[in-house]
Write a structure and sequence with these properties.
The complex is a heterodimer. By secondary structure, chain A is mostly helical. Chain A has 9 helices and 10 strands. Chain A is globular and about 70 Å long. By secondary structure, chain B is mainly alpha-helical. Chain B has a domain of 48 residues. In chain B, helix 1 runs antiparallel to helix 2. Chain B starts with 7 loop residues before the first helix and ends with a helix. The chains are: A mainly alpha, B mainly alpha. Chains A and B meet through helix 8 and helix 9 of A and helix 2 of B.
Chain lengths: 357, 70
């Protein structure tokens, strides 16, 4: 690119992150229920408010709110013995919600069944009674939105092929897709069987990448920083490897060829543990990287409020922008790592026996 | 009087520091080896960078996991 255009693009990106930084903080003069507290004068109060904002960001919520009062409520869908209950999450703000004879209340981000007065009930095992929760929460809504975006983007990419060459947006996506095929799928799974795993690898890469990017946007969506989401993705990899495991794969786990028999007996339980630990590590790695990044970013912004000085504010502001750029790299890198490790596990599952044992 | 030296919360934080030291040393060594390799064979830079990023992300994964447990 010419130097002038390069500078303009760089300035534009940094300005965009300015909005990101501004929108990520919650107004420090009101608590989570919208009530205005008195002038926050002590540092402890500011720190507590920052803590609470960060906790609020990390958790899921039943309404899609960007700032206080800016957003829309999402449907709450519950199922218990009395059948299906559907209502808007805005009803939850005013205490117990009545639906088909049952009362529900939201406490600490979860919905519980209550009696008519709104008291939580005990189910005899020390847990509170709660219905099965199938609500469209903020995370579910964002995932659905991302799926729609992925669908329309790649439908456009497929359509943009004129002969063998892609045009427009397809020419941006094609090198990435080729990269996934040539550098991730074929080296790990092999030329013969990589094609059947390509759809999953492509989907996982772009899905995780777009979700990570969504978490960096000013709307406060934290999806891959939610361990339930990464758990589901890791479970998919786990199921696919076990289903596609051939005799060679299971043989390597339980009776590793090429080592003396006492070692085989020692290795079997360790390898079996490895079967479960590898997807578990996939889950933890993505979850910890993304949520730690979010926590650090929001803490830095909170520090600007704690110190209340121009020098510290400017310094932390610059640091936040720099860290946001690193988080962009981490977003793509974690998607790449998830994909390449999944490809590695698939490759191990479908590997044919080679004769050097 | 509560134990000042073996206070559990302080030990937690010291443990977190040790984890970060371990991750830092590990990734630093990978970076060093990668740079040596690139210096020997500049045409293999792409492959070396890819391998370095993978290894660094794996070590960071353990680092973060341990930090979260703390």
């Amino acid at each position: 690119m010419q130097r002038k255009v390069y500078t303009k693009v760089l300035v534009a990106i940094m300005l965009l992150f300015t909005f990101n930084v501004n929108a990520q903080h919650e107004d420090s003069h009101s608590d989570a229920h919208g009530a205005v507290t008195s002038e926050l004068s002590t540092k402890d109060q500011i720190k507590a408010s920052v803590d609470e904002t960060i906790q609020h960001h990390l958790k899921d919520s039943y309404g899609f709110y960007i700032l206080h009062g800016v957003g829309f409520p999402l449907p709450v869908i519950l199922w218990n013995d009395n059948g299906l209950h559907v209502f808007s999450s805005s009803a939850l703000h005013h205490g117990a919600v009545e639906s088909n004879g049952d009362y529900f209340v939201e406490s600490h981000g979860k919905i519980y069944t209550t009696d008519a007065e709104g008291n939580l009930m005990d189910d005899g095992h020390g847990h509170h009674v709660h219905p099965l929760d199938f609500s469209i929460t903020k995370n579910v809504f964002t995932i659905m939105l991302t799926v729609l975006i992925l669908f329309f983007v790649f439908k456009g990419v497929a359509k943009s092929y004129k002969g063998q060459l892609p045009t427009g947006f397809g020419s941006l996506m094609e090198p990435i897709i080729i990269f996934i095929r040539d550098e991730i799928a074929i080296p790990n799974i092999g030329e013969k069987r990589h094609k059947q795993f390509m759809p999953f690898l492509l989907t996982i890469f772009f899905f995780v990448w777009f979700l990570n990017l969504a978490g960096l946007m000013p709307f406060g969506m934290n999806i891959t920083g939610n361990i339930a989401v990464t758990f589901s993705l890791a479970i998919m990899t786990f199921i696919l490897t076990q289903i596609n495991g051939n005799k060679n794969y299971w043989g390597h786990i339980f009776w590793m060829p090429g080592v003396p028999t006492p070692m085989k007996i020692i290795l079997a339980p360790i390898e079996l543990l490895g079967v479960f630990i590898k997807p578990f590590a996939l889950m933890i790695r993505l979850y910890a990287n993304i949520s730690a990044g979010h926590i650090v970013l929001m803490s830095l912004i909170g520090l600007m409020y704690v110190f209340q000085s121009y020098a510290a504010g400017t310094a932390f502001f610059g640091l936040t922008i720099f860290l946001s750029l690193i988080e962009l790299l981490v977003a793509a890198l974690q998607a790449y790592i998830f994909t390449i490790l999944s490809a590695l596990y698939f490759g191990m599952a479908v590997e044919e026996a080679h004769g050097d044992h | 009087m509560e134990n000042v030296i073996l206070d559990p919360e302080a030990l937690n934080l010291i443990g977190a520091g040790l984890v970060v030291i371990g991750a830092g040393i590990g990734i630093g060594r990978i970076g060093g080896s990668a740079m040596d390799a690139i210096a020997r064979q500049p045409e293999a830079t792409g492959k070396i960078q890819t391998a370095m990023l993978i290894a660094a992300a794996l070590i960071e994964g353990i680092g973060f996991a341990a930090l979260f447990a703390v």
